[in-house]
Amino acid sequence: MTDPTTDFEHDGERLELLYRERFSEKELEFKRGMWKVFVDSYFQRFVGATDVVVDLGAGSCEFINAVRCGEKIAVDLNPDVERYAVDAKAIVTETRDMSAIPTGSVDVVFSSNFFEHLPNKAELVATLEECRRIIRPGGRLMVLMPNIRYLPGRYWDYFDHHLALTHHSLVEAVRMTGFEPTLVRAKTLPYTIKHTRMPHWIWLVRAYMRLKIAWPIIGKQMFVVSERVPD
Q1: In degrees rounded to 5, what are phi and psi of residue 8?
Q2: Which of 10-19, 127-136, 189-198 has maximum average pLDDT?
Q3: What pLDDT shows up at residue 7?
Q4: What is the CATH number of the domain that holds 134?
Q5: 3: in domain
Q6: Is residue 190 a part of any domain in this protein?
Q7: Which runs of E-coded beta strand occur in the chain?
Q8: Residue 1 is assigned to a structural domain of this protein
Q9: Among 2, 111, 118, 126, which lies 20 to 30 A Cα-Cα from 164?
């Protein structure tokens, strides 16, 4: 039984219970196929064949399982990350303390739909500083997350959403922690596969990724790529 006084966002057991209820097996299967399309059609271009890649807040590991790189590491506080990681090393830990990963050993840190779950901006800064520690100079931080500027109301459909950012405030945060943005897209992917009338069809995902003209209309998630500034 969990201690009711424990901070929810630092309680791996509660997170495990929450996420097992959030998505059905059918939805998880669709997410795996969806992320394979996302990676193949767009995100893979930011990752080299020999890169060491960390998936920050990896969850059910759709990104890290799909991406092609030299070494894969999946980091999450939820112990379920260990059963979802296929060919990645799973590390169950707080993102503000990734001491299991050596300093300057990572080429790319990718984070999808994670920063909004952090309880406050101090926690975000601590996480970004830890990312800077593990990323080599010139390495990349890639952040995909909901853009609160385009999500009035719907952002709060999830119990564990706390930190609301726009692409402007995210850019300020990465700059103050030693990164320089090289790509800022205010709108990319749609918000969520939950609470939507959109059918779960992979061919529709492929069509969306090809039709970038639709991103500013349908997209509700921002994507920011930043380079680690040398010391």
Answers
A1: -55, -45
A2: 127-136
A3: 54
A4: 3.40.50.150
A5: no
A6: yes
A7: 52-56, 71-76, 89-92, 106-112, 135-146, 179-185, 221-228
A8: no
A9: 2
Beta carbons of 134 and 101 less than 8 angstroms apart: yes
Residue corresponding to tokens 């097992």? 20
- For 138, counting Cβ atoms within 10 Å of its Cβ (0-12 exposed, 13-18 middle, 19+ buried), the class is exposed
What distance in Å separates the CA atoms of residue 39 and residue 59, rounded to the nearest whole number? 16
Q: Is residue 88 part of a domain?
A: yes
Helix (H, G, I), strand (E, B), or coil: what is residue 143? strand
Residue with tokens 């999500």: 151
**Of 37, 154, 170, 69, residue with least CA distance to 114:** 170
In whole angstroms, give the CA distance from residue 82 to residue 90. 5
H or E segment to which residue 17 belongs: helix 12-22
Longest dimension (CA), the chain: 49
Band the pLDDT of 196: cuts 50, 70, 90.
low
